[in-house]
Each structure stands twice: as structure tokens, then as C-alpha cells.
Write a structure and sequence with these properties.
Layout lengths: L1 H13 L58 H4 L5 H6 L13 H20 L1 H9 L8 H8 L4 H14 L3 H8 L4 H12 L13 H4 L4 H7 L1 E6 L4 E5 L5 H11 L3 E5 L2 H11 L5 H9 L6 E3 L6 H8 L4 H14 L2 E9 L2 E8 L2 E8 L4 H12 L10 E9 L2 E12 L2 E10 L14 H11 L4 E6 L6 H12 L6 E5 L10 E4 L8 H8 L6 E4 L5 H12 L3 E6 L7 H7 L4 H7 E8 L2 E3 L5 E4 L2 H11 L46 E4 L11 E4 L2 E6 L2 H8 L4 H10 L5 H10 L5 H8 L1
Parallel strand pairs: 2-3, 4-8, 11-15, 11-16, 12-13, 12-14, 14-15
Antiparallel strand pairs: 1-2, 5-6, 5-10, 6-7, 8-9, 9-10, 16-21, 17-20, 18-19
Helix pairs in contact: 4-5, 6-9, 14-17, 15-16, 16-17, 20-21, 23-25, 25-26, 27-28
Length: 735
């Protein structure tokens, strides 16, 4: 053979180019040669424009020509033909050069089957598209070809669509010429691609799930049958080669595309995939024990959460969502289905932040998992539900209050996190200080009357009440509390959880308390007339009552109680003090920055602070996060003896404020934790008289300021000038 090849090469070199060289003598010729099939338009031997040797110099190949020289029979037929390799019909070549006759026949049959499949599905579509026939014909073209409209109608409709820039399909449907189903059938007949009616088809789960839900929804495609040729898929536009190739890669098999109605495909995606969550729900049920859920710690940071959630099962996803909330001191977790995604937001330091986005397909399974843990009805999606459950994260025992609500894209879940292991904050660490702290602690020593803590939800009222009760707690007093829910456990106090379902409300509980020989009563919230009147009655008979009220300022609490039906003379005689508060975020100690206040900020500071007696913002000490001691005020601070490193030594006219920057310690927010700002309105004869006279809350506030009360915003500005928070934070929580 090598000698023959050399002779052939020498002979070729002497050829003048007009005739083919003589073929070598063959010892064996394959009786069934594989003839190359080359389309005329790309055959350089038959197409003069593509023939590098010019026209007519090389004759075209004919079927009678012998095949390429081959090696002797014992080896040649044991390997796949080179044409089959090029076409991709042969996967792995056997390492055994002499397979059995049975194996050889099986291999050849597989090659034939695969070749037929390719020709019938994707290759067929590619040929249609490449030849131009597959370019999307207009609807009018199809109708004209089917004879449903005349040539004259075609020209009129085409002209109207182009002149008015109308959508062709919408125009045809509005005219009532053809239905959408007829259009699909017409396309099916035109392109010789089958049509499938999915309306009453039962699809096996294992076939349907070959295409993941998100891919099926985004591409409007479903797998409906497995055949010997491959997986049959239904699409709106089977001529979209890229989409068909994408599905083929997903199912890891040959695909056979079908035309199908878009609404039928959407219905299958919306209804059939829902059963995919059954297994996950059952796993969730099995993982719940009567002692509560213990979460193994896996999440160290937000990035860690985002990475680990991607491919985790639903139960672990829920666990990691809860773990992150507990570890990073979130007060609430919001799980919200939105258009195209499932959003997970955490309220940290009073601000909601979206920390995680999940596929919308996980909504049902995530909500079901939480419902199972909360012992709620998993098949009820139409009405709100409330529940609770406990978890353990590390050494923390956490009580979770769950609320579900039906929304447009599914069910929203809000989880309130109540850490049982959180201790009571000492009163001096809440942010109360100076004359406000002294006034409040003096009034706490009273044995009767009402102490009101006011503010919106999330302003720290419960923490202040718990700190106050802890100060009063001793073996010589009987403390009873009525809360919804019991957020902070106080050792030695009798804490009662409101349960409206069995009739235990604030009013009924407070009425029962009066028969329990209490010394101190704490009411979580005065919500209605009955509760307000019972609180006044308890104070009148010699009990000290602590309660909360939702108002924006301390002076606004008085007209609110009057509106509830409390008599003015009773209110004036039982109220001891009213405290209003907010919780701005504290600046991070590691990254805060000191900047010179501009003219706009100076003007704002003047407007707020000029009414405060004895305050001078140019000489006000700027201590680096050193909180003034309880009872200490700016006016009695000896600036000369203060730590010079913490004093603003700028000349008069320069005022420095602080701003947040962001670092790793504060997760880029610029803040760590929160601090209270307060105003304490002490009752006296002048204010009592104003209550009886039904004076406005503004008049009462002005009188309290004249008596020395520091407004909440003024307390906040002082803390901002000291570097504990920012002016912007104070204004945010105040408004």
C-alpha cells in the first residue's frame, strides 16, 4: 500500500490538470459504498462559480465511481464509516476491533435510527430555515395560500396594515377571518410540522419534569411524550431553532417539536407543575418534631446565604432564611411573591432590605413549609392566617409569629422574630438621660397612677416598659402584664398572652387582673374605650399602671384618650407622665466621618435647637460615642475639664456633624444598632387644668416646653451632634 500511494502522488504531479490520474489497483472494494450527498448549490465540482479549477476541467462525481481506497476486509468493516463520524451518528468507537456480528448489527441499527431522528426533527427544521421556506410567513400569506382570502382581499388588508402600522394577527382576529387555532393548524400544514391539541392530554410527571418549570415558563414549552425517536415537545413556534436546541440540551435527548396553542401550554405549566411540590411538602412534615425546629448553623454572612440557597432543597432554604434573620438581629422577615421572583426582605434596625431573590416557582413550597411549621392550613390560600412556632439557632431560643396574606402573585408571609434569650435592657442604656431620665425614674417610684409610653410600631415602647418593670421588680410587689405577644421575659413578673380566639382580650384580661391583688399592671396597648376606662379605674384604686399608646408625640396622647371616652377630670387626676420615643440607627464606630455642617444644615439645627434653654451648639461638647450619664445634661457639663480629644475646638461659627460611610463591620450600611430619643411630659397643675379645659395638644406641648421639657427631635439632634447618630436619621424617624 505505501508503494501504491507513492506512485499515485508521482503520477498526480505529472498530470496536466485536464484528466484525472489513474486509480491504483484495488484488492478489495466495499460492495456497499457510502456515497457522499452534496447539495448542488455547495458542490464545487458542479458549480462553476465555486470550482477553483475553472469550468469543465474536473468532471462531477458519478454514482458509478468507486469509493475511496480501503484497507482489507478483516479490519475495514469493523470501524464506523468516516461519513458517519462526520455526521455525528457515531458516539464511542469500541476498543475491540473484532466485535461480534450481533454487536455490529446493533451498532448499525442505532446509527440508522439516530440518523432518521435527526432528519425528522431538528435537521429538518434547519433545512427549512436555511432554504428560506422556514422564514416566518405572514398570516395573510398563509390565508392566501389556503384560499381563505382572495388576492384582492390580500392586497387591501396588506395595504391597510402597512399604512396604519397595525399588528397583523390582531388585525386578522379583529376582522374575524380566522381563529388562532386555525392559524396554528395552517402553519403546521405549511411547514409539515405536526400540531398537537393539549386540552385533554394526560402527561406523565417524569416526562413533564424533563423541562424545569422556570425554563418551561420562560420559553412556553412543555414535554408531553417520550417515544423511540425522542422527546416530543409542544411550542408556540417550533421554527425557533435556538429554542429547540436549548430544550434539546436540557432533556439530553433528541426532541421532536410540535405546534401547540399558547393558552393550552400556559395552562399546563400553571396546573400540572403544581404537583411537583407534593414531595417537598411531605419532607417538610416529616422534619417537624413536637419540640420545635432546631436549625443547624450554616450561614455566616449575606454572601454565604445567597450562595448556599441556590441549589438547596426547600426545607434548608427556609432554615437558612430564618437563621440569617436571627443571627443578624432582624425584627421581621418578609417573604413576598412578586412578578417573576420571590423576594425575601429583612427589617434590620427598622429598615427593610431585600437580601435574597428566589425563583417564583418556589413560592408554593416555601409558604407550605412555613405553614406546616406554624400548624396552619396548607390548602387555604384565600384568607389570612396567623400562627407561631419556635426554633433554636445555636444557643438562641426564638419564638416566631407568622402571618400569611393572599396577594396578587401568591401568598405573602411576614415572620416576627422574638428572641427569648434576649435580656432586659437596663433603663440607663435605652437612651434616656439628663433631666428626662431623672424625671422618669422619680415618677417610677410612685405607687399609683398611669405611665404612658407612646410612639408608632417599632419605636421601642416594649423595651422601655420591660426596662421600667425590671427596675421596679422585687419580691415585695406583684407585677402582672397583659401583652400581645409576650416579647421580653421578665423574671418575677406574671406575664399573660392575649388570646382573642378564646375571649382573652386586653379589656377582659385587665378586668381579671383587678381581682389578682396586683401592685403594678402593665397593659401592652390601650386600643379601645373599655381598656382605657379599666386602666383609669385600676389607677384610681391605687395601682400603678404602665401602658402604651400609638401617638406621634407625648402631648397628642391626651386628646387621643379623651376621644376614647375617658372623662377629662379623671384623666387629669391619674396621668403621672407621658413619654414619646423613636429609635434612630446608631452610627458605626469604625467608619463614621466628621464633616463641617453646611449653611442648610446650620439653619436646620438653629430652627430645632434655638428653643432649648441653655443650649449653645458652638460650645456643645462633641464626645466620641460617650453617652452622657443619667442625670447629666449639657448645661451642667464642665467643658474645661472634659476630655480635650472629644471636644469640638473649632472657632465659633463652625459646627461639625457626623455622617455614615459603611464598612465590613456594619455590612456597608454605616450603622450598627439603634438608640432611643425621648421626650418626657410630666403632669403638673397647669397641664391638668389645660386637660380639663380641652386645650389642644400644641398648647399642652408649648406649656411642657416652658416647664423644661426637651422635645424628642431636640434630644435626637443632641445625640447627632455627639456622633451617636445622624441628623438625617433623626429626621427620618421623627417624620
Amino acid at each position: 500500500m505505501p508503494q501504491d500511494t507513492t506512485k499515485q502522488q508521482n503520477s498526480t504531479n505529472k498530470n496536466d490538470g485536464n484528466t484525472l490520474p489513474p486509480l491504483p489497483e484495488l484488492k478489495h472494494v466495499n460492495p456497499n459504498p457510502v456515497e457522499p450527498v452534496i447539495p448542488p448549490n455547495i458542490n464545487p465540482l458542479s458549480n462553476p462559480s465555486m470550482n477553483p479549477f475553472g469550468s469543465g476541467n474536473i468532471p462531477a462525481l458519478t454514482p458509478s465511481m468507486p469509493n475511496i481506497p480501503v484497507v482489507p476486509e478483516p479490519i475495514e468493516d469493523k470501524f464506523p464509516k468516516i461519513e458517519e463520524v462526520k455526521k455525528g451518528n457515531v458516539g464511542v468507537v469500541s476498543t475491540d476491533p473484532f466485535p461480534t456480528k450481533k454487536e455490529e448489527e446493533k451498532k448499525k441499527s442505532e446509527v440508522v435510527i439516530k440518523s432518521d431522528i435527526k432528519e425528522k426533527s431538528i435537521e429538518k427544521i434547519e433545512q427549512i430555515v436555511s432554504s428560506g421556506a422556514g422564514k416566518k410567513q405572514s398570516l395573510l400569506d398563509i390565508l392566501l395560500a389556503q384560499g381563505k382570502i382572495t388576492k384582492e382581499q390580500f392586497n387591501i388588508f396588506k395595504s391597510e396594515i402597512l399604512s396604519k402600522n397595525l399588528n397583523e394577527e390582531t388585525f386578522v382576529f379583529d376582522k374575524g377571518i380566522v381563529s388562532h387555532m386555525d392559524l396554528l393548524k395552517a402553519k403546521s400544514e405549511t411547514y409539515k410540522i405536526p400540531f398537537i391539541d393539549l386540552s385533554n392530554m394526560e402527561i406523565k410527571k417524569d416526562i413533564l419534569y424533563k423541562i424545569p418549570y422556570e425554563s418551561a415558563k420562560n420559553n412556553l414549552v412543555v414535554a408531553f411524550e417520550q417515544s423511540a425517536e425522542g422527546v416530543k415537545i409542544a411550542l408556540v413556534d417550533p421554527l425557533d431553532i435556538q429554542k429547540v436546541r436549548f430544550v434539546e440540551a436540557y432533556v439530553n435527548d433528541n426532541v421532536i417539536p410540535y405546534f401547540a396553542d399558547e393558552e393550552q401550554i400556559k395552562k399546563i405549566i400553571d396546573t400540572k407543575y403544581s404537583t411537583q411540590f407534593d414531595t417537598e411538602v411531605n419532607q417538610a412534615v416529616e422534619s417537624v418534631s413536637s419540640s420545635g425546629l432546631t436549625i443547624k448553623e450554616e450561614v455566616e454572612s449575606f454572601d454565604d446565604l445567597n450562595f448556599k440557597v441556590q441549589n438547596a432543597p426547600v426545607s434548608r432554604i427556609v432554615n437558612m432564611i430564618l437563621e440569617y434573620g436571627v443571627k443578624f438581629k432582624a425584627s421581621d422577615i418578609h417573604i413576598e411573591p412578586k412578578e417573576g421572583r420571590l423576594s425575601v426582605r429583612y427589617r434590620i434596625h427598622g429598615i427593610l432590605n431585600e437580601k435574597l431573590t428566589l425563583p417564583l416557582t418556589l413560592t408554593a413550597s416555601v409558604v407550605s413549609r412555613i405553614k406546616i411549621l406554624s400548624e396552619l392550613k396548607i390548602d387555604e390560600h384565600r384568607i389570612p392566617q396567623d400562627g407561631r412556632f419556635e426554633i433554636s439557632v445555636g444557643k438562641s431560643k426564638v419564638d416566631l409569629r407568622v402571618s400569611t396574606m393572599p396577594v396578587v402573585h401568591g401568598e405573602k408571609v411576614v415572620i416576627r422574630i422574638l428572641d427569648k434569650t434576649t435580656g432586659v435592657v437596663p433603663l440607663e442604656q435605652t437612651g434616656l438621660r439628663g433631666p428626662a431620665y431623672k424625671t422618669y425614674t422619680d415618677i417610677l417610684k410612685a405607687t399609683q397612677g398611669i405611665i404612658l409610653i407612646t410612639g408608632p410600631t417599632g419605636s421601642g415602647k416594649t423595651v422601655t416598659l420591660a426596662s421600667s418593670l425590671s427596675t421596679l421588680n422585687n419580691p415585695g410587689v406583684n407585677i402582672v402584664t397583659l401583652e400581645d405577644p409576650v416579647e421580653i421575659r421578665i423574671d418575677g413578673a406574671n406575664q399573660v398572652q392575649v388570646n382573642a380566639e378564646v375571649g382573652l382580650t386586653f379589656a377582659t384580661g385587665l378586668r381579671a387582673f383587678l381581682r389578682q391583688d396586683p401592685d403594678i399592671i402593665m397593659v401592652g396597648e390601650i386600643r379601645d374605650q373599655e381598656t382605657a376606662q379599666l386602666a383609669v379605674q385600676a389607677a384610681l384604686v391605687g395601682r400603678l399602671v404602665l401602658a402604651t399608646l400609638h401617638t406621634n408625640s407625648s402631648s397628642a396622647a391626651i386628646p387621643r384618650l379623651l376621644d376614647m371616652g375617658v372623662e377629662p377630670y379623671l384623666l387629669a387626676s391619674v396621668i403621672n407622665v407621658i413619654v414619646a420615643q423613636r429609635l434612630p440607627r446608631k452610627l458605626c464606630k469604625d467608619c463614621r466621618e466628621k464633616i463641617k455642617a453646611d449653611d442648610v444644615m446650620l439653619k436646620k439645627i438653629h430652627q430645632v435647637m434655638d428653643g432649648l434653654q441653655g443650649f449653645d451648639m458652638y460650645s456643645y461638647p462633641k464626645r466620641d460615642f460617650k453617652q452622657l450619664k443619667p442625670g447629666e445634661t449639657p448645661s451642667n457639663t464642665n467643658i474645661d475639664s472634659a476630655d480635650k480629644a472629644g471636644i469640638n475646638e473649632a472657632p465659633e461659627g463652625d459646627v461639625y456633624i457626623w455622617k455614615s460611610k459603611g464598612c465590613d463591620r456594619c455590612a456597608g450600611t454605616g450603622y450598627t444598632g439603634r438608640i432611643g430619643i425621648f421626650e418626657v411630659l410630666k403632669m403638673n397643675e397647669k397641664i391638668s387644668k389645660m386637660i380639663i379645659e380641652h386645650r389642644s395638644s400644641q398648647s399642652i406641648q408649648e406649656q411642657a416646653q416652658a416647664d423644661g421639657m426637651i422635645l424628642m427631635i431636640q434630644d435626637g439632634f443632641m445625640k447627632a451632634l455627639e456622633g451617636e447618630t445622624t441628623i438625617e436619621e433623626v429626621l427620618r424617624v421623627q417624620n
